[in-house]
From TrEMBL, chain A:
This is ABC-2 type transport system permease protein. The chain crosses the membrane at residues 26-46, 58-80, 101-128, 134-157, 164-186, 212-232. GO terms for cellular component: plasma membrane. The lineage of its organism: Bacteria, Bacillati, Actinomycetota, Actinomycetes, Kitasatosporales. It comes from the Bacteria. One of its GO terms (molecular function) is ABC-type transporter activity. Keywords: Membrane, Transmembrane, Transmembrane helix.
TrEMBL record, chain B:
Signal peptide: none annotated. Pfam families: ABC2_membrane_2. Keywords: Membrane, Transmembrane, Transmembrane helix. The chain crosses the membrane at residues 55-78, 90-107, 137-161, 173-197, 203-222, 234-257, 269-290. This is ABC-2 type transport system permease protein.
Amino acid sequence: MSASSGLYHPTVARLTYRALLGRRRAAILFALPALLLIISAVIRVMTGADDETATTVLGGFALATMVPLIGVVAGTGAIGPEIDDGSVVYLLAKPIKRPTIVFTKLLVAIGVTVAFSAIPTLVAGFILNGNSQQIAVAYAVAAAVASIAYSAVFLLLGTVTRHAVVAGLVYALVWETLFGSLIPGARTLSVQQWSLALAQKIGAEGAISSDVGLPLALVLLIGVTVAATWYAGRKLRTLTLAGEE
Amino acid sequence: MPPETTAAPAQDVIHNIGYRNYAGPRLGRAYARRSLFSQSLRGAYGLGRSAKSKVLPMILFGVMVLPAAIIVAVSVATKMNKLPLEYTRYAILLQAVIGLYIASQAPQSVSRDLRFKTVPLYFSRPIERVDYVAAKFAAMASALFILTATPLLLLYVGALLAKLDFADQTKGFAQGLVSVILLSLLFAGIGLVVAALTPRRGFGVAAVIAVLTISYGAVSTIQGIALAQDNTAAVSWIGLFSPITLVDGVQTAFLSATSAFPGGHGPSAGTGVVYLLVLLALVVGSYGLLMRRYRKVGL
């Protein structure tokens, strides 16, 4: 199999990886998990091991705030800046299929998001209550699954709009946090709740709760990820470069 | 600047092609500073920019004002004897909108100048570093003040039209205004400092919102846990560590606001002094950091 016919292109992957973890961008990616671990350690010292506290921190802070933010940075950062400064034309001019480019960038974005959100969540869970009731593992899996969906959605946003970061943040903050807490129906359409459904299954009975049933959540997770990736590949084929406003 | 000598062109040129020197009035440094301020303020709402860049700030402005209009309509229609919420509470409730506004507009104010290397061009004009920083800071704070004070004004006018107690409402409105002035200065400072670190607009947006929401998320999580432990002293102290809870703390201590802290355990007047000092230190500190940032910029 030649490199150009597969869905994964190592050079594109290397370029994306370096764009994501180069320079200051990496600072935000390191700062967030570090903060989570520090908070977990402080809380453990302050209150001792407590399952309810662990759920509050992992659900309220890690999964609700940290994972979407890292998803936005990694997902839009994988393609947004290249489109923004126009250097994406050099990539598109190479004989590489557009879906291959998107898929490779998605893999890298997923890898980065999982590494910087799911793994710290797992470690924080062990710090908080030593994985009692499987809470640490449940939230880590939820964070990993959410990372995949967020990366795909935000990568798509990166190809659709120049204001991908703002759009992504509006979704993550306004839709999931604000509307999710006010309108029960909005929770059905929330990556966070879908991944919580998985966490509910893994965690001990009654430890974690989600508003969405597991089968529906899985269908939606996979559906959204696949659809977003497919559409991003399509979008890249008809990309028009606009000047700076 | 050297004094203008326009009468006779210099004779020591090899070939005089007849260009005239500018002989009109020089408007000077203060004018340039005012222009930079008004341009930045207009730019923060997309005025004088493309139609596309008006969309987001105008939508956010609309979202910010809409709840106030609804509240006024409801309280007039149902003849309430007081507004259903305090003036000081409004900005706290809509903090997500304010956060998104500063995150989207602070980078457009400073990041693009860095990215297109126009900062050295500004400094080729008769303005100094302090003028640039002060103009940008003042413009962003004014833009935030317009965003946060307009709904309060709407509430106040509505309350007077509904014939609520004049003295009561005026006092509440004044307290609300002081609180949003502090909030505007604080958020403008933080937003600009973070945005000025990077020439990439998108990354600036993410960084500003990360600073605001992550600190708030962390603070409210820890506060929730401290409340569950009945450690109310900790609840009132932890609020120091995020911008919006800082404003909340100051207005709880001094502007007779009801705290939005978990359980309503806001800081007392004594603790409130610390809140106020930290808030002022952050505003001054962000001004200082901006001055530092622009010392060698673009060279």
